[in-house]
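Help needed: design a sequence for this.
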């Protein structure tokens, strides 16, 4: 709550300080930290950023999706760079789906290069077990409808597992 001057009331300020302290409190569970970070993000408090990015990179997709939604609400200018770094990290490919979806929803300049780079890498890995990640890249590139994605989408259309989605994505890019 704010007063007539637009300042936070002492109660809100105290609550935000308590939530911020929870983020670094030794022994706090990940769930408690995430809840605090989400509450801070809803209050447009940038102190939530690091915790949310850490959870975005976490192996539990439900928690990572929650972090992605909070990061989108927070609208911190560092978010797209962090999501791009997570989406393109070959050591974290199995956990990249929430970061990829976040990049698409943000529609920032980092999105197309990051999705393209990830998809190119996955297309060159024979028998890659990350079909869901590749498919998310294809669909995201189609949603972004950026001409820079055409070469990698054409390559993806040669993969029988991605052909239908890649053709649909190419059609969206062509219409844009």
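Sure. Designed sequence:
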């Amino acid at each position: 709550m704010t007063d007539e001057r637009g300042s936070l009331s002492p109660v809100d300020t105290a609550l935000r300080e308590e939530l911020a302290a929870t983020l670094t409190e030794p022994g706090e569970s990940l769930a408690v930290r995430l809840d605090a970070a989400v509450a801070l993000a809803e209050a447009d408090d940038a102190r939530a950023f690091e915790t949310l990015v850490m959870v975005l990179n976490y192996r539990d997709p439900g928690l990572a999706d929650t972090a992605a939604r909070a990061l989108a609400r927070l609208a911190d200018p560092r978010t797209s760079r962090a999501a791009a770094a997570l989406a393109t990290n070959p050591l974290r490919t199995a956990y990249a789906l929430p970061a990829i979806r976040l990049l698409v929803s943000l529609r920032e300049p980092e999105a197309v290069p990051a999705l393209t780079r990830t998809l190119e890498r996955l297309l060159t890995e024979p028998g890659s077990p990350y079909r869901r990640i590749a498919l998310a890249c294809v669909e995201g590139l189609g949603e972004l409808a950026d001409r820079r994605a055409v070469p990698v989408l054409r390559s993806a259309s040669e993969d029988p597992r991605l052909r239908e989605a890649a053709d649909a994505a190419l059609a969206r890019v062509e219409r844009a």
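DSSP finds ten helices and no strands in the chain.
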